[in-house]
Design goal:
The chain folds into three domains: 110 residues, OB fold (Dihydrolipoamide Acetyltransferase, E2P) (Beta Barrel); 214 residues, Rossmann fold, CATH 3.40.50.150; 118 residues, OB fold (Dihydrolipoamide Acetyltransferase, E2P), CATH 2.40.50. Helix content is 26%, strand content 22%. Strand 1 and strand 2 form a beta hairpin. The strands form six sheets. The chain has an eight-stranded mixed beta sheet, sandwiched between helices. A five-stranded mixed β-barrel has the order 1-2-3-5-4. It is built from 13 helices and 22 strands. The structure holds S-adenosylmethionine. The site of S-adenosylmethionine has 20 residues, from helix 9 and strand 17. Keywords: Methyltransferase, S-adenosyl-L-methionine, Transferase.
């Protein structure tokens, strides 16, 4: 068995001359540098190494291997032809789209190519013929801009569904041309592929993956956007055409999101996936940037957050949140406080700290987690859970919404200001005193403080950032042995990796092993390729 945190090296190339294998470094992730390298040596090492495990490049790479075939790719890696693109920079091609990729782009191949090679194309769908222009060549694949959908796939594409004038330029959305049901199906496939590529578990250990939970709102749902802009350069500051009192937006100023496939900002005046109050407020925020443009010394990331109106007291907050119809405001001050209602619950949190960005789907998410925790088990042998540990708890979303179902709840979170918000939210929602406790710290520290929780009656809920859990956390999780582990994740690839480690790491000491009981994607970001994933693991005692 691989040790926790150990990454398996790629399988050896079949039929490859052994002498050429060391050309590639295994994708073990960032480790301590063994020797001092010059910049160019580092660049070369980076060029030759495989992408870091679970990085977006690695997700793409594994799906490219899926299209080309593992043996073919391994042979090319071994004989050094993996960088020999059959295509020139700026070459125009007509291609067949063969697969959707978890990154949101599509994978295409050319029937006329001199050798099998993948071209990564945005905004196109499996079964389509597309005309593209190559802009970069990489290992066994090229990147291209979409010029035209020559033959659309009528079973998937509906261009009349597109609601944003920036679609196909802005890097924010990938799937507006795809009817919603089909978006949900694609996201289910992302979960399937993630567990196939990263869990390192036998097929029998992966349960049937449920259909993706839809978002009630498919546009106007995003409760936070962060458009950004670059500060004027020296030359722009002295440009007589842009005097500092200019109230018109200079042509060079772009306030918005990144152009697809680049780090360049494109100007965005409206964002139809954002909530109505954010869309209404955006023009004023943009005008304010123009007015104060020459005071900015650095680029700025703005924030627009949908919120219930501020309230001066707890009672006023509860009253305001229960008033119908709700009025909303947009909080643009990074140091402000945002408030929102999720079902009957009210949450307040600092504007610049983490909170989920699609309020409409959160009741389905928390209800689902509750229903899975308390689902009757086939054996009926397990006691009903009484204790909840919410690791990576943020402002207390899961700890508080699930608190009525537990006797004792403990939450931990790195951000001290989120913990202050979580403590305040427990009071705001009248969680009985003494039932819930929050502490600021690294998630792994929680196991030191819940030593008196009975593991067989404890649920451990984890919702880490995109990079997933670290080795010390997983080691302690395995030592603690909560009866149920609910793993909520915004990155299904690191989730699959961690779930694989948990399952393989359990069962070695005869104290029971974890089984993956259920797996379901949630659509927190309609129109985009993003999928949130909820995995439920249950500890099965060997005697059962
Ligand atoms: C995806 S958010 C989830 C928050 C919360 N569960 C929610 O749904 O609102 C991940 C949270 O983990 C916190 N975090 C990041 N690294 C951490 C660590 N090593 N230990 C504890 N919390 C951490 C972040 O500050 C962030 O609030």
């Amino acid at each position: 068995m691989a040790e926790i945190g150990q990454v398996r090296a790629p399988s050896p190339p079949s039929g490859a001359p052994a002498a050429k294998k060391p050309r590639l470094a295994a994708n073990k992730g960032p480790g301590p540098a063994r020797t001092t390298q010059s910049k160019s040596q580092k660049r070369r090492a980076q060029y030759n190494s495989l992408p870091e495990l679970c990085s977006p490049e690695d997700v793409l790479w594994r799906e490219i291997k899926g299209v080309l075939g593992e043996d073919y790719v391994d042979a090319a890696l071994a004989d050094g032809t993996d960088r020999q693109s059959p295509f020139e920079y700026h070459q125009e091609l007509e291609l067949q789209v063969v697969a959707a990729c978890s990154t949101g782009s599509a994978l295409a191949t050319s029937p006329e190519s001199s050798r099998p090679w993948v071209v990564v194309v945005p905004f196109s769908l499996p079964g389509e013929t597309v005309r593209v222009r190559v802009y970069r060549n990489a290992r066994m694949h090229s990147f291209a801009d979409l010029l035209e959908v020559v033959v659309p796939n009528p079973e998937l594409r509906d261009d009349s569904a597109v609601q944003c004038k920036y679609f196909e330029s802005c890097g924010g959305c990938q799937y507006q041309m795809l009817p919603y049901e089909k978006q949900l199906n694609l996201k289910r496939d992302v979960v399937v592929k993630a567990y196939k590529n990263y869990a390192d578990l036998p097929e029998t250990a992966i349960p049937a993956i449920e259909s993706t939970m839809p978002s009630p709102k498919q546009y106007n749902y995003r409760t936070k956007i962060t458009p950004h802009f670059e500060a004027p350069t020296k030359a722009q500051r002295v440009d007589p055409k842009n005097p500092s009192n200019d109230t018109d937006r200079p042509g060079w100023l772009k306030i918005g999101f990144n152009l697809v496939g680049t780090h360049k900002v494109m100007d965005i005046e409206d964002c139809p996936i954002a909530t109505p109050i954010i869309r209404e407020t955006l023009p004023a925020v943009r005008a304010n940037v123009v007015k104060n443009l020459y005071t900015y010394k650095k680029g700025v990331s703005l924030i627009l957050r949908d919120s219930l109106p501020p309230a001066s007291t707890t009672a006023a907050a509860v009253d305001a949140a229960s008033s119908e119809p709700e009025t909303h405001v947009c909080i643009t001050d990074h140091r402000g406080t945002a408030r929102e209602k999720i079902g009957p619950w009210i949450f307040e949190y600092p504007n610049s700290s983490f909170f989920q960005n699609n309020n409409s789907v959160l009741p389905s998410l928390t209800d689902y987690v509750q229903s899975r925790i308390f689902a009757p088990l086939p054996s009926g042998a397990n006691p009903t859970p009484t204790h909840l540990v919410d690791a990576y708890c943020g402002a207390g979303l899961f700890a508080i919404t699930l608190s009525p179902h537990f006797a004792t709840v403990a939450g931990i979170e790195l951000s001290a200001e989120s913990i202050r918000a979580a403590t305040n939210n427990a009071a705001l929602n009248a969680v009985p005193e003494g039932k819930i406790s929050f502490r600021a710290g690294d998630a792994a520290d929680i196991f030191r403080t819940v030593g008196d929780f009975p593991p067989r009656e404890t649920v451990l809920l984890i919702d880490p950032p995109r990079k997933g859990c670290d080795e010390p956390f997983i080691k302690q999780l395995l030592g603690f042995r909560a009866q149920t582990v609910v793993y909520v994740s915004c990155n299904v690839h690191t989730q699959a990796r961690d779930v694989g480690m948990i399952i393989r790491g359990s069962g070695e000491d005869g104290k029971g092993r974890y089984v993956l009981e259920s797996l379901r994607g949630f659509d927190l970001f309609p129109q985009t390729a993003h999928v949130e994933s909820v995995a439920v693991l249950r500890l099965v005692q060997e005697a059962e």
